[in-house]
Design brief:
Blueprint lengths: L5 E3 L8 H9 L21 E4 L5 H12 L3 E6 L3 H10 L5 E3 L5 H15 L4 E4 L14 H26 L5 E6 L12 H21 L3 E8 L9 H9 L8 H13 L8 E4 L7
Parallel strand pairs: 1-4, 2-3, 2-5, 3-4, 5-6, 6-7, 7-8
Helix pairs in contact: 1-4, 2-3, 2-8, 4-5, 5-6
């Protein structure tokens, strides 16, 4: 793709909900399926949308996919400068803005991706939120702040992607869950519930959409960035591997699922240095 594109879905000129729905429910007119049951898929020229791709793990996933030859589509909500930089480093990938709290904006995001690229072969649901509260202090607002993006948006992104993939030979979906979806964290009950939900959602959708669409989940452990705190450092010290993970290690797990055959679906891969086993 030449150049970078940015779409602000909050403007009055945006595609309306009805036309967005039509864009991924009407045939796309492709001549050949783009995803097969080969033992290992080639990601070259495959269209892969990564949510929350502006920074951190999402950025690493996008960059790795670009190195694999994929046609990456960068989603962001607020980190525009970072998203533009990531898009530029991915060879001028399209940069699309959407508020994932809104199902209408999710629909527009996928409709615009299909319009620009003609199809969607892969989806990486990376965007997520993280907060810390005593469970006795969690309000409805606190709960909804986490669950609207961490779980509700994941489902509706999967749904929108699958409607397109079903027209184009199938596809691959990878949902980012978390060590917090496997192990309980006392001060993150709302977050743990959302990520455990992602794991079960992944399994249910894998069963619903097999064999044409695979749905798998990667659960990162402690992946330290500059803002790592003392609690995070203690978790790293407890990790059997003796260190924190890297964004590139998470990206490698995502790439594995995107390349895997349709016989690999409904699976959880923890990239946590063995911490989930302690």
């Amino acid at each position: 793709m030449n150049g970078e594109l940015k779409f602000d879905y909050t403007s009055r000129d945006s595609v309306d909900r009805a036309s967005a729905k039509r864009a991924y429910t009407e045939p796309l007119g492709l001549l050949e399926p783009t995803v097969t049951d080969n033992p290992e898929l080639d990601l070259r020229e495959k269209v892969v949308l990564v949510t929350g791709a502006a920074k951190r793990i999402g950025r690493a996933i996008a960059l790795r996919l670009a190195r694999e030859g994929a046609r990456v589509v960068i989603h962001y909500q607020t980190s525009e400068a970072d998203a533009r930089q990531t898009g530029a480093e991915c060879g001028g990938a399209p940069v699309l803005r959407a508020n994932l709290e809104s199902v209408a904006e999710i629909e527009r995001l996928f409709a615009e991706t299909a319009r620009l690229c003609g199809r969607i072969d892969g989806l990486v649901n990376n965007a997520a939120r993280f907060t810390r509260f005593d469970p006795l202090e969690i309000s409805e607002t606190d709960w909804d702040f986490i669950h609207t993006v961490n779980l509700k948006a994941v489902f509706f992104c999967c749904q929108a992607a699958a409607r397109i993939m079903q027209q184009t030979g199938g596809g691959r979906i990878v949902n980012l869950s978390s060590l917090g979806g496997i192990r309980p964290w006392a001060e993150h009950a709302h977050y743990c519930a959302s990520k455990a939900g992602v794991i079960m959602l992944t399994r249910a959708l894998a069963k619903a959409w097999a064999p044409r669409i695979t749905v798998n989940t990667v659960a990162p452990g402690v992946i330290p960035f500059d803002d790592i705190d003392e609690r995070g450092r203690r978790m790293i010290a407890a990790t059997p591997a003796g260190r924190g993970g890297t964004p590139d290690e998470v990206a490698s797990a995502v790439v594995y699922f995107l390349k895997a055959s349709s016989f690999v679906t409904g699976q959880l891969l923890a990239v946590d240095g063995g911490l989930s086993q302690r």
